[in-house]
UniProtKB/TrEMBL annotation:
Name listed for the protein in its UniProt record: Anaerobic benzoate catabolism transcriptional regulator
Keyword hit for Repeat: no
Residue ranges occupied by any HTH cro/C1-type domain in the UniProt entry: 17-71
InterPro entries named in the record: Cro/C1-type_HTH, Lambda_DNA-bd_dom_sf, TransReg_Diox_bact_type
Gene3D superfamilies (alphabetical): lambda repressor-like DNA-binding domains
Source species, domain of life: Bacteria
SMART domains documented for this protein: HTH_XRE
UniProt entry keywords in alphabetical sequence: DNA-binding
GO CC terms of this entry: cytosol
Database matches in PANTHER family: HTH-TYPE TRANSCRIPTIONAL REGULATOR, METHYLPHOSPHONATE SYNTHASE
Length: 147
């Protein structure tokens, strides 16, 4: 018997639930307890294996402190025919990772703009892909708005 393939929208919504949960530092167990479901059910939601009903999605949005639209923003844009860059997806996956969250939180905690620029220069020098160099101008603009 062949395993059911998750619907792309269900998988996207689940990925957004996972991203927000991780950004808040919540475990699957703590979120599932807040929702009154098992952590296994939450895992299925996050993987897109099980579809999240409207009332459950409303409750998830309340617990995670986001509007329901948070779970659909990029997907809605794609459905409307707008193209999002592959980099957006790559960055979202990185930020949702354990290392991405830790790095993002540590970087945000650095208040001195000079230290931020030096850390960014170090990361660029250590990077081995051209994409890091290609994004240089964009990062510098972000740094300038902060300092």
């Amino acid at each position: 018997m062949k395993a059911k393939t998750p619907n792309a929208i269900d998988a996207y919504v689940g990925e957004r639930v996972r991203l927000r949960r991780k950004l808040l530092g919540l475990s699957q167990v703590s979120l599932s307890e807040s929702l009154g479901i098992t952590f296994q059910q939450l895992q299925k939601y996050e993987k897109g294996v099980n579809r999240i009903g409207a009332s459950r999605l409303q409750r998830i949005a309340e617990v995670l402190g986001v509007p329901i639209g948070f779970f659909f923003d990029e997907q809605t844009a794609q459905t409307a025919g707008l193209r999002l860059s592959a980099d957006t997806d790559e960055v979202a996956h990185f930020i949702a990772s354990k290392e991405g969250l830790a790095l993002t939180r540590a970087f945000i905690a650095i208040e001195d703009p000079n230290v931020r620029r030096k850390l960014l220069a170090l990361a660029r020098s250590l990077g081995s892909t051209q994409s890091v160099t290609d994004e240089r101008e964009g990062w510098e603009r972000v740094d300038e708005t902060r300092g």
